[in-house]
Amino acid sequence: MKIYIPLDSAAKALGADEVAEAIQAEARARGLEIELIRNGTRGMVWLEPLVEIEENGERLAYGPLAASDVPALFDGKIETLGRVEDIPFFAHQTRLTFARCGLTDPLSLADYQAHGGLTGLRRALGMNALQIVEEVKTSGLRGRGGAGFPTGVKWDTVRMAKAPQKYIVCNADEGDSGTFADRMIIEGDPFCLIEGMAIAGLGTGATKGYVYIRSEYPVAIDMLRQAIQIARIEGVLGASVLGSRHAFDMEVRVGAGAYVCGEETSLLNSLEGKRGVVRAKPPLPALEGFLGRPTVVNNVISLATVPVIFEKGAQFYADFGLGRSKGTIPVQIAGNVRFGGLFETAFGMPLGQLVEEIAGGTASGRPVKAVQIGGPLGAYFSHDDFATPFGYEEFDGQGGLIGHAGVVVFDDSADMLKMARFAMEFCAVESCGKCTPCRIGAVRGVETLDRIAAGDAGAVPLLTDLCEVMKDGSLCALGGFTPYPVLSALQRFPEEFGTVKEAAE
Amino acid sequence: MPRDIPQPDTDEIKALIAGVSDLEGPLLPILHALQDAYGVIPDIAQPLIAEALNISRAEVHGVVSFYHDFRTLPAGRHVVKICRAEACQAMGGAALGEHAQARLGVEWHGTTENGAVTLEPVYCLGLCACGPSAMVDGKLLGRVDAQKLDRIIGEIEA
Ligand SMILES: Cc1cc2nc3c(=O)[nH]c(=O)nc-3n(C[C@H](O)[C@H](O)[C@H](O)COP(=O)(O)O)c2cc1C
Ligand code: FES
Hints:
Chain B: Belongs to the complex I 24 kDa subunit family. The structure holds 2 protein chains of 2 kinds. By secondary structure, chain A is α/β, with parallel strands linked by helices. Helix content of chain A is 41%, strand content 14%. Chain A is globular. Chain B has a 4-stranded mixed β-sheet with strand order 2-1-3-4. In chain B, helix 1 (10-20) runs parallel beside helix 3 (45-53) and helix 3 crosses helix 4 (57-66). Residues 143-147, 149, 171, 173-175, 260, 262-264, 297-299, 302, 476-478 of chain A line the site of flavin mononucleotide.
């Protein structure tokens, strides 16, 4: 009998370690022979800890479980949820990037290969760098870290750059509230990221990779370090990747609690051991990146999607999606929702369907009021925006952004002026300090919102003006996009900023 | 008490620095190694790092002070981090933060007078689908409410 209990951070936060201990103790007490596997999460966080028991070729799920449920579990007195694949939230997904996450033992390279792992890398080894880059271009893959820049184009720039050393830097800083896809795949399928980075190395001529993981993710850091070690021993990484004449090795670096270090140039400075201040662009990191050398900086999900593109073919991937948003997007459903977790789907699903159907509305049972998409720099949407299909251009058209695809739902108790104030406060706390509109603007933004909260509706035009300055004058999207949540809250919920009340009086 | 932590000696620090100084961009790994070992970046370490990496003391100081993680003063014996970010706020995270401050009698970044507990804000732990979330001495916690927090604080204070 095989028993799967996730080691994912969210599962742990809900008691998975205690359940695992209880299961081991109970099995021992009953003299039962079990094989306990700590897998990644299947992504249905409301069911965590979700335990799966595999027996006679059938794998059945139980959850959410507490340690105290374990005796009843062994007595067969806990009703099963059935197969994970049949649970509607899961059944409605298109799992390409996350196909293995939660299914396999994350640190078993054999398991990884049994589920399609390394097929993509083997195929890439039979191609030259140009063919690899063309394949990525054909897939239509765009950066999942926020900006949506075509991954193949970025790789091509690095491929064509001449330098004695090039780098692949994976951005695992994942600071956006409402996002956890990077964490989830690193914890649940770390070889997938390693394989994606190795292919990126082949495509660009980079032989060294770094993964910059935020310090808030201790489990992910530990899992990736272990996986890299295994990949080296098994010859996936090292002087000869899978026995080829190509070298690629990689290393984990840990951040130190600065949101702005998710911005790629700030990240590179941090990696070099400097303060995480943003660099002016140009030069592009692709030409002068880490230590001044050509560097690919890609988000975890961008890189972890590369293996399936090479396994199934670029066209297969490109056939999913909508318009210029090709393939799938792992939407992270968070905040006040009944069914929170990771939902990977082809681009194009309307926002309203995601929020009301897939997420099941709010956890509190109260009406949905606002939805923030794309992290702390993303806009607040309301019911009026629910027809918007999930796509880069479509969200842009609504004055918002997809960002890293976190969807944070708020019920009607949310105070939108407070949320706008928080956006400015966060920007003030996290600003790297290099440019004035961000460093000073955010502080003035907090003050101006406090004036509005105190009843001075006349300060609203000042706030709008300040936001314009921040948008136009900031060096990076921290100061440049903080106006999104602020202005969207103001535009969609004007009554909470006193402007409508004033007019009615 | 925080102030009683023994000052590490120079040789020990030099050895820690030497252990990672061959890396490309070694400063953050060095600082993490020091903080793992001593709970702070010891005052005497900064000039040693500057010397080992051939950079100015000001540069080292600039880096230490830039990052929220690095401490120059020790934390309490226990560290409670509470997520202040949006997804947790949607589930009552702000009230939880206020409760924690009231219960401990400190503000954010403060340490209780007996040196038992330091309260830190954190901006997302990636537990956004099971907020409000917290981290207590490195252990992750989801769906934390005031009662659960009181129980945990009670346990670590004991
Ligand atoms: C303030 C700020 C924070 C960011 N944080 C992240 C992050 O945590 N992870 C990420 O992948 N990209 C982040 N980005 C975007 C990166 O600058 C960059 O666009 C991305 O890493 C490129 O990878 P991609 O093309 O694969 O998306 C951030 C940008 C800004 C302005
Ligand atoms: S917002 Fe609190 S854990 Fe992500």
